[in-house]
Amino acid sequence: MAKTAKKNKVLELKAQLKEKKLCSLYVFYGDEEYLKEYYIKKIEALIPDAGLPEYNRIVISGRADYSEYDDVWESMPMMTDKRLVVIRDSNIFTTRRSGDIKPPDDEQKEFWQSKFKRIAEDTVIIFCEKNVDARSALFKAASKAGFAVDFAYLSLPDLRAWIVRRVMKAGKKIDTNTADYLVSVIDPGLATLENELDKLINYCGEIVYRGDIDKVVSKALSVTVFGITEGIMEGNADKALGVLSEMKTQKQSVFGILYLIYSNVEKMLHLKMAGASSRNDAVSILGGSPWAAARYLDGARGFSMQELVHMVRRIPEIDYEIKSGRVTDWQALEDYVMEALEMRLKSRGGTVNG
Questions:
Q1: Taking Cα atoms as reference points, which of 269, 236, 264, 262 lies closest to residue 318?
Q2: Within 10 Å of residue 330's Cβ, how many Cβ atoms?
Q3: In this structure, is the dihedral angle defined by the CA atoms of residues 260, 264, 267 and 272, taken in order, positive or negative?
């Protein structure tokens, strides 16, 4: 239901742009930066700047002095009917402090409440935000005064359709399974997808194959880390430690790697406990790409319940050992991988390869 509501908001925004009937206030938020920027450009195209962008195209990035906000709110367009104001990462719709991000105080909330009640018809204001609490009073006030759109990452069917359209536009072909595989090996977000598709289209022939993806696409860190898990499952020390060594050379964060290993193994354990027996079972339990679900299902089949439980439990312990200074971070991670490989050896009653 919530996903449908979000999609309807985007469709409603498209209708506004098609009919050239803009709201005076927009709040764009959510994970998909590509779509936020895309629709800002679409709105910008409907508001001529009359050759005076310093008056009719105003951008404020980060939390500004409130006198600056006040000046922007009260000024008028120059030599044109409308002007565009884009306010980026104001963080006024947050409710909790996080690092340098501070929620507005009572005086600032009162300031914005009054501004949202009085927006000039000759101005279009867009808040483009990364941090939003949709329960906050200011967010509700802004939504009531204007139009808020949550640009979440696209669903797999939408991404698949997007890929197929882009490849067809380039005069080439890609089947849906290959499109799904591409989604499963890259970081989320259309900006990443567009960049990797450009590389693929320039590299491949008339048809995009999975092998093309493996050769030219920059794979997500989570996928690279999965190679460690696969190496452990196969009892292949060279593979597991080789991936680890490469990541050490790249100066990757040990804590980031530990988190991803934990996430991988926890998903396998979830599938094991649920008795998943097919890719469809795995997709229904985990969601996401069928290719990713299949990777986790293979892992769930390859490890025993005892191994998965042990691997999950050890990571918080290792995190504590590193932070308490008992062991260095890379040494702890390498010891964890070797420990898992030794456990694999015992469970298989054979030898660790490599």
A1: 262
A2: 15
A3: negative
Please list the rounded mean pLDDT of every run of 10 residues in the chain (354 residues): 69 96 96 96 95 93 84 89 95 90 93 93 95 95 96 92 96 96 94 96 96 95 92 92 94 94 94 93 88 91 93 94 94 95 79 54
What DSSP line would sit under 249-313, residue for residue?
HTT--HHHHHHHHHHHHHHHHHHHHHT--SHHHHHHHH-S-HHHHHHHHHHHHHS-HHHHHHHHH
Q: Which residue(s) pair with 25 in the sheet? A: 125
Strand partners for 236: 353
Distance CA 223, CA 50 (A): 49
Nearest alpha-carbon partner for 218 in 244, 202, 196: 196
Rg of the chain over CA atoms, in angstroms?
A: 25
Asked if 68 and 60 count as a contact pair (C-beta separation under 8 A), the reply is: yes
The Cα–Cα gap between 187 and 195 comes to 11
3 state DSSP class of 278: coil
Structure-token match 């050759």, residue found: 51
Rounded to an integer, what is the distance from CA 22 to the centroid of its chain?
28
Task: Evaluate whether 90 touches 66 at the Cβ level (below 8 Å).
Answer: no
Q: Are 286 and 267 in contact (CB under 8 A)?
A: yes
Distance CA 311, CA 269 (A): 10
H-assigned helices in 124-175: 137-145, 156-169
* Residue 214: its H or E element: helix 210-216
CB 238, CB 273: distance < 8 Å: no
